[in-house]
Amino acid sequence: MQAQRPPGLTVFVAAFFAFCLFQNARAKAQDAEESLRQHIQTELNAGRVASALELARLAVGQYPKSAGLYLLLGMIEFQQGASEQARRDLRQSIELDATVPKGYYELGLVDFQSGHLRDAAQSLETYLRVEPRDAEGALLLGRVYQRLSRIDLARQQFQTAASLAPQEYFPHFYLGRIEEREGDFSASLEQLKQAIQINPRLYDPYWLAGEAELGAGDADGAEQFFAAATKLEPGGYQAHEGMGRVFLARGWTEKAAGELALALRENPAASSIHCALGEAYEKMGRAVDAQIEFHACVQLNAPRSALSGGAQ
User: What is the pLDDT of residue 297?
Assistant: First the structure.
């Protein structure tokens, strides 16, 4: 007679067998999901973004509980300019798995680019609590704070980014810009010089360094930076305007008028150029031309409601 298997053992074997089947099915599902993700990434890498987007949409339909696929879908939608859909799907990714830091970073980036600045700050603050040594995250949060006019917080984030990645251009550039606007020309110049040293082929830090030198009263230093800027970008109105103001400070009114006229040709809506050109013309004795420029300056600076007679 065959010995009977104890009832408890039978239950255990059945449960163990069911568990093995479940684990096997789960592994196969994860493999299939990963295969889909890799296929989508291959399409992206090949520049076939529309195909990647369609695959990602099908993938989340097949795996609606996959935080990773929703994250990928949101990132692709953002690349395609569909910011609201991207925000929705990135939020869904975070709801499915709030422990993945990248979801918060990507959501913060989308919110920043689409103007949802307070939401962007919240997402990026969460991200940086988990990834405090990510220079890119600190830089992006600094830009968000700058847009929100929270200058001290922006400065802190840019300083953090510069400390974490001292050879990166943008932390130094944004720090230089903040300090120049805040009137700390020495600190601005220090940061802008570092930005120039890291990437000497970019226009903006040169003319901003010229502004810092001019603000500090060093016309010679300002002229050197403005001249370097115009070599990189001959049509850059900021450098021509700055050079014009350098020449005005030296009393070289004809040369100043020439530079300011070049700046005005590139940006006729800049009131500061009209004002400086009016000053140059006035010193040259060209009263009518000066009056025209001063009038343009006033008109451009006037509130829209005043120009329209207060109409709402």
Answer: 96
How far, in Å, CA of 62 to CA of 287, rounded? 75
Best CA proximity match to 105, nearest among 120, 84, 117 = 120
pLDDT, one tens digit per residue, over 172-207 is: 999 999 999 999 999 999 999 999 999 999 999 999
pLDDT of residue 6: 59
| pTM of the complete model | 0.82
- Does position 28 have pLDDT exceeding 70, yes or no? no
For 46, counting Cβ atoms within 10 Å of its Cβ (0-12 exposed, 13-18 middle, 19+ buried), the class is exposed
Choose between 45 and 3: higher pLDDT: 45
pLDDT surpassing 90 at residue 17 = no
199: CB partners within 8 A, 6+ apart: 169
**What whole-number distance in Å separates Cα of residue 253 and Cα of residue 248?**
6
CA 75 vs. chain centroid, Å, equals: 16
Question: What is the rounded CA–CA span in Å between residue 204 and residue 310?
Answer: 38
